[in-house]
Design goal:
343 residues; five-stranded parallel sheet; 50% helix; 14% strand
């Protein structure tokens, strides 16, 4: 147990050391950076609290980092919590009662808050007050609690699950996009510099090309390549050491890992390319349905290797070719037919 806790602490320390502190240090997300910079600079110039901010996008793109940057740019304290931790209105009321003027409250996975807590948050965000219920039944009393102006920064990977009343109370909404390979290469080189690692341009490019458009994955792969270069090479991260290290850790040139390839192999070899239900596919690769649906499937769909149809998941001709297999005749026509079929 101690070793697990130590590893987790090491991971957090590693991520914290690499996080940008200002918008100028943030690589990529150019549109979001410019919009945020204008909003924050204007708010500081007016001496007022900025609008509430909603950050949405897949995991690992920097939502938490941007929340920290917002607090840093405002020179304000950052309070951090998460949707799953706020299951009762009282949980949120307790947090809000400790908020000071100008504070930034970061709520990760905000779409997972309970409905009563969401309704309390509506009032806090709009009117800077909440009604705390004391007692139960007919004798219950609502005590108004005034809250000094503050800024909520919400982060979500599933913006569609946010109810409209909550979404509408955010004055600024940003959708984070996947990063280009060149941006990820800059991130890898920046991280290597902060860690005092020697990395060549082709070495950083090799890591970036397999990072699935995600900075968190790029930094994780950098750590593994660092270990390989330290133990089996001369400590320099070049193309060859990066290539060998990532092959050892089962990350292929497109960024597919063991689970991704297991899903594609099962789909093509065991089920003839589909269609097959996600639950059946998960059993075939000995994983939970949620793991396959949330970790493997989005990336495979993005690459055009897997298609979701009303009758189940189907492998595309590109998936067959990536596995070195010959796609069945008319595979793409079958996918088009299934997509057009009524649910």
């Amino acid at each position: 147990m101690d070793s697990i806790e130590e590893a987790t602490a090491e991971d957090r320390a590693f991520e914290a050391a690499l996080r940008p502190r200002t918008l100028e240090e943030l690589v990529g997300q150019e549109r979001v950076r410019e919009q945020l910079s204008l909003m924050l600079e204007a708010a500081v110039g007016r001496g007022s609290t900025p609008d509430h901010v909603l950050l949405s996008g897949p995991p690992g793109l920097g939502k938490t980092t941007i929340a920290m940057i917002i607090a840093n740019q405002l020179a304000a304290p950052l309070r951090i919590t998460s949707g799953p931790a706020i299951q009762h209105a009282g949980d949120l009321a307790s947090i809000l009662s400790g908020v000071n003027e100008g504070d930034v409250l970061f709520i990760d996975e905000i779409h997972r808050m309970s409905r009563p807590a969401e309704e309390l948050l509506y009032m806090a965000m709009e009117d800077f007050r909440v009604d705390v219920i004391v007692g139960k039944g007919p004798g219950a009393t609502a005590i108004p609690l005034e809250i000094p102006p503050f800024t909520v920064v919400g982060a979500t990977t599933r913006a569609g699950l946010l109810p409209s009343p909550l979404r509408d109370r955010f004055g600024f909404t940003a959708q984070l996009d996947y990063y280009e390979a060149a941006e990820l290469q800059r991130i890898v080189e920046r991280s290597a510099g902060l860690l005092s690692l020697e990395v060549t341009s082709d070495g950083s490019a090799e890591i970036a090309s397999r990072s699935r458009g995600t900075p968190r994955i790029a930094n994780r792969l950098l750590r593994r390549v660092r270990d390989f270069a330290q133990v089996r090479s001369d400590g320099v991260i070049d193309h060859d050491s990066a290539h060998e290290a990532l092959a050892l850790y089962e990350v292929d040139p497109l960024g597919l890992d063991r689970l991704d390839r297991a899903v594609l192999t099962a789909l093509c070899s065991s089920f003839g390319g589909g269609p097959v239900g996600i639950s059946t596919l998960a059993v075939a690769v000995s994983e939970e349905r949620e793991t396959v649906e949330e970790l493997a499937e989005p990336f495979l769909v993005r690459l055009g290797f897997l298609a979701r149809t009303p009758r189940g998941r189907v492998a595309t001709p590109a998936a067959w070719r990536h596995l070195g297999l010959k796609p069945p005749v008319g595979a793409q026509l079958e996918i088009d037919h299934l997509d057009a079929a009524p649910e």
